[in-house]
Amino acid sequence: MTMHQQLPETAGTVRYKSVCRSCHGGCGVVLHVRDGRLTRVEGDPDSPLNHGRLCPLGTVTTDLVYHPDRLQHPLRRRGPRGAGTFERISWDDALDEIAERLNAIRKESGPEAIALGTGTGRHHIRWVSRFGHALGTPNWAEPGFAQCFHPRVNTCILTFGDFPVCDFTGEVPPACVLYWGHNPVNSGPDGETRFNVLEALAHKPKIIVVDPRRTGLAEKADLWLQVRPGADDALALAMLHVVIGENLYDAPFVQRWTHGFDALAAHVRPYTPEWAEPITWVAADKIRAAARLFAQTRPAMLEWGCAIEHTPKCVQTVRAVSMLPALTGNIDVPGGWVFGMHGLGRFPSLIEKLTPEANAKRLGADRFRLLGGAGADLPAAHIPTLLQAMRDGVPYPVKAFLVFGNNTLTTYANSTMVREALLRLDFMVCADLFMTPTAEYADIVLPAAAWPELDQLAGLPTVAANVVLAQQKAVQVGECMADEEIFVALARRMGLDACTEPVKQVLDSQLAAGGLGITFDELKQQGFLKVPFRYRKYESDGFRTPTGKIELYATRFEALGYAPLPCYAEPPESPLSTPEVAEAFPLVLTTGARIPFFFNSEHRQLRRLRKAHPDPIAEIHPDTAARFGIAHGAWMWIETRRGRMRQRAKITTGIDPRVIHAQHGWWFPERPGPDYGVFESNANLLTDNGPPYDPQMGTYQLRALLCRVAPCEDANAARPPM
Ligand SMILES: Nc1nc2c(c(=O)[nH]1)N[C@H]1C(S)=C(S)[C@@H](COP(=O)(O)OP(=O)(O)OC[C@H]3O[C@@H](n4cnc5c(=O)[nH]c(N)nc54)[C@H](O)[C@@H]3O)O[C@H]1N2
Ligand SMILES: Nc1nc2c(c(=O)[nH]1)N[C@H]1C(S)=C(S)[C@@H](COP(=O)(O)OP(=O)(O)OC[C@H]3O[C@@H](n4cnc5c(=O)[nH]c(N)nc54)[C@H](O)[C@@H]3O)O[C@H]1N2
Ligand code: SF4
Ligand SMILES: [Mo]
């Protein structure tokens, strides 16, 4: 494998330009390598995405790369699944065994009996489906396809013909930002880094925050709407009512460039702020004020996050919220919501390798057509249906699961069922940086390369690809291999007729398809390329929808049998929909608000980060804490109808007395395996993966659940308060 020196060598240190992927990624970096070892990672001052800065995760990259617990060799399990005993094997043995087992399963049960799983926004995410398609299975899954980001992407493609992103790298800053279920100062979606968000904030825009918690942004906001978790659809519909009812919309834009305005206007007439107040817990006056402020301040942008995608009415909520920038003409304008230049061509997903019969077997595709069927951008399987196929063999058995960068036991809803499903598999492979509670269930564990150890392309923001960056291999750790290389090696061993070409050939083909006139090797020399940008592209090109306009009334939804106008639905479990459950579980639970120190279930091994945040923390209002006997810093049980787990209580007035917030992704790498405490503080012991699902995408419920709390006496005796 070749490595490439990009910048002049100084005093024995070689420097490589690359892109950090410790979160969804985006920050340009310079990797310093001395004697084959990564010694330092600094922010690339030239990068338009971070201007030389790094967050806490990026800062500790060398700790990640050289952590003593890194998996460095392939392992084979000895003894029963989940027993936690492994032996070292060679790559040759590992690949041979995997190829042999997969070919046998493919022959006996059909390729659809092999499923693939991957994690959020990984560099190799599209390679997982590519390999799956090459071996003939339609069953690949990623936790984000039904409950994070992709509902926004698929819904927008059907509504706008493309996916809009915030214009952070242009000349004009936003005059108003609406942060809806999103806290990008801590999180940041793909390529929209917190640094650009902070830069926009430095221009002092008007700020509206829709969040049940008083975040740092909520503290700064002109208006903070402290919505009840899971009531976002009602709030959005009421804001649309105000924007339309008070004639605050951009009439010329709406008339020329939207389809179905009259139908929408009639549809939202009943959704008054007074109607929404008892549902959303937001005062009617505040709803009116927010709608007016957003509509009357230009340019304005919508910064939305996964919080609106974590309930079974995800897609219609996304639709309703997305109409605010559309009606106010903030589309493809400087400082508003813009469409990308698509500097990277379409990824060669090899989906054409799937026959119509194979496509029809995609689990859940018949029901969730925006996830796995005709309305999907890149069709994926429905996770709860997949787990059922593994555990119960219905509608047909799934016998093998290849997990490339997903901590299934912590991040899928209903960890208890996930465990039952994994235990029933005939064959499981897990590629990861570390041994995780999930990898412990595998037959073969593969050591994956971390981001400074591999070549890849990133087009950021994701989907828009206004900046194209080269991620490059600067070091080699143990026998770790990039996921992409593993897929190529496996495809060759299995004798597949696709996915066998070298990785670099695919990277070059993506660049060629994007029309940038540059090869991967050339891109590495400069680190990144900013694609020349154009606003108001619709004036010459129209919108890529059946009507050529923004479809407020969505004709493709209608054609797929879904509601063409966004509607309101109560979460399946809530004080309003199930008051009888609320008697025993009187509090509304939300989970997973991001913190800067960890990425989902990752990074708990990294001492410098863990020191800043040693324990899982749940937020509770002082009145509620007093009512249930909870002390600040003490462990408390949080319990739903599905199970209970414990986190330390943070008593704060920043949360409604009727709401609890629990962190997600917790396990304890320092504890003994095979469980590493994954059944102690894991929010997904509380969540639900049963029906009802979002009718369009099959989304299950990670937030807006009913819970109760109690002091956790045993844990408090064993471990002193914070
Ligand atoms: N209750 C609750 N649950 C949630 C959420 C929530 O808010 N609340 N959020 C949901 C959301 S939005 C998402 S996207 C999912 C995220 O779920 P996951 O994608 O599972 O999240 P991670 O923990 O980030 O990553 C999983 C694994 O990838 C490994 N990894 C990192 N880099 C690489 C690599 O390059 N190659 C390989 N092979 N492995 C790698 C890490 O070590 C880690 O073990 O969680 C979901 N789960
Ligand atoms: N450092 C770091 N960065 C990350 C991640 C990480 O784990 N760590 N995870 C990555 C992933 S996978 C994702 S999807 C993104 C997620 O990042 P964001 O999209 O920003 O989502 P969250 O931080 O989960 O939630 C944002 C806000 O929504 C609020 N919220 C909770 N429930 C509701 C609700 O029902 N309605 C509304 N309106 N708001 C609600 C929370 O209080 C929180 O402040 O971040 C990514 N970046
Ligand atoms: S924000 Fe993401 S890409 Fe930037 S330094 Fe942090 S982890 Fe890396
Ligand atoms: Mo996510």
Indicate how many domains the architecture comprises. 4
Average pLDDT taken over every residue: 95
Fraction of residues in H or I helices: 25-40%
Q: Low-confidence runs (pLDDT<50, min 5 residues)? A: none
How widely separated are the two ends?
48 Å
CATH topology of the largest domain: Rossmann fold
User: What oligomeric state do these chains adopt?
Assistant: single chain
| Large-scale geometry | globular
Hey, roughly how much beta strand do the residues contain? 15-25%
Largest sheet: 7 strands, mixed
How many helices? The count is 27
Q: What's the arrangement of strands in the largest beta sheet?
A: 5-4-17-16-15-6-7
Query: How many strand elements?
Result: 27
List ligands, each type once: ligand MGD, iron/sulfur cluster, molybdenum atom
Give me the CATH architecture of the largest domain, please: 3-Layer(aba) Sandwich
| Overall radius of gyration | 25 Å
Question: Could you walk me through the main structural features you see in this protein, from its secondary elements to its overall organization?
Answer:
- By secondary structure, this protein is of the alpha/beta class.
- The chain has four domains: 2-65, ADC-like domains (N-terminal domain of TfIIb, Single Sheet), CATH 2.20.25; 75-142 and 343-451 and 474-499, Rossmann fold; 150-339, Dimethylsulfoxide Reductase, domain 2 (3-Layer(aba) Sandwich), CATH 3.40.228.10; 579-715, Beta Barrel (Barwin-like endoglucanases).
- Helices cover 31% and strands 17% of the residues.
- Strands 5-4-17-16-15-6-7 form a seven-stranded mixed beta sheet, with helices on both faces. A six-stranded mixed beta barrel has the order 22-26-23-25-24-27.
- The longest helix has 19 residues, at 91-109.
- The chain is globular and about 70 Å long.
- The two termini are 48 Å apart.
- The chain binds ligand MGD (2 copies), iron/sulfur cluster and molybdenum atom.
- Molybdenum atom binds next to loops.
- One ligand MGD is lined by residues 23-24, 120, 148, 180-184, 186-188, 210-213, 215, 227, 229-230, 232, 305-307, 590, 592-594, 596, 598-600, 703-704.
